Design the sequence.
């Protein structure tokens, strides 16, 4: 594995861990977060399991203030 692939994996894993931790701190289910940010529950699940890399669009939606 070259260093760029390793870095991408590390970043994806860090995003996954942080996303799950923040969601759980707020007591939200995946469905709750999906409704609040406009990202599908399935995509959020894949992000939290580091199965996919977050797009700029998904990250932007996740960073929006939520009620």
Sequence:
């Amino acid at each position: 594995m070259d260093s760029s692939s390793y870095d991408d994996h590390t970043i994806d894993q860090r995003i996954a861990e942080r996303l799950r931790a923040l969601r759980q701190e707020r007591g939200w289910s995946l469905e709750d977060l999906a409704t609040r940010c406009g990202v599908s529950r399935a995509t959020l699940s894949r992000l939290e399991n580091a199965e996919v890399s977050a797009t700029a669009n998904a990250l932007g939606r996740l960073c929006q203030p939520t009620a």
Notes: Helices lie at 3-25, 30-37, 41-48, 56-63. The chain has four helices and no strands. The first helix runs from residue 3 to 25.
